[in-house]
Amino acid sequence: YSTVLRLREAAMESKDPLPELNRKIFEDTEPHDTGFLKVSDIHNLYYEQSGNPDGYPVLFLHGGPGGGTSPTNRKFFDPNFYRIILFDQVCTLDSFFHDFLGFTWDLVEDIEKLREHLKVPEWLVFGGSWGSTLALAYSESHPEKVTGLILRGIFLLRKKEIDWFYEGGAAAIFPDAWEPFRDLIPEGERGCFVEAYHKRLNSSDKETQYAAARAWTKWEMMTAHLLPNNDSIKRGDDDEFCL
């Protein structure tokens, strides 16, 4: 952890903390096509296309599960070259359906239905965090439809990764973010933070749910970047988004 900690501490102390990490990669671009695709009898998913309509197709897969897309996601790609395709996985933001469990392989098939709907022969798949898991699962199921993978912030939801992130490992890098996440849980329940938060997120008391959801979301938002991203962190104040 020492190298990461030194970089983070130096950046936090600098008056101009690593501006290259926060620069706009490409200019903002507005969607030229949006819609909802019915992927089952009970739910639809929101999608949008931006950039070059005749460009190289690239699919952006967001994190979470439940993170949703945002306009910032389009800026990973050169809009003059790429046909940029974003969608909200079912149970997130504009594709929200409360009772759908969002199993991995159901989401994989949703991706394939979207590809067919948009008449994309094959595409580049770009995924981060949970999106990296989904990208790998999709490419394993439909290798002939994937021209390449770009994976960032890889998080495969293996037990050792969950334990490191939620049970104290990441706290060594982000101690300031860890304290409020830890302190919501009484000392007697800190043997398993995932279990303790699961209990509160499923409480019959709405405020208990919201408090746990806010703390959980802020922990994730504060650790998603080496340096604090205030726009992301503010999303942790939105009870409906968090829960």
Automatic annotation (TrEMBL):
Family annotation (Gene3D superfamilies): alpha/beta hydrolase
Full protein name: Proline iminopeptidase
Primary residence: cytoplasm
Annotated EC: 3.4.11.5
GO cellular component: cytoplasm
Location in or out of the cell: Cytoplasm
Domain of life of the native organism: Eukaryota
UniProt family annotation: Belongs to the peptidase S33 family.
Span of domain AB hydrolase-1: 56-178
Any single GO BP term: proteolysis
Keywords of the record: Aminopeptidase, Cytoplasm, Hydrolase, Protease
Reactions the enzyme catalyzes: Release of N-terminal proline from a peptide
Enzyme class, first EC level, given as a word: hydrolase
GO molecular function: aminopeptidase activity
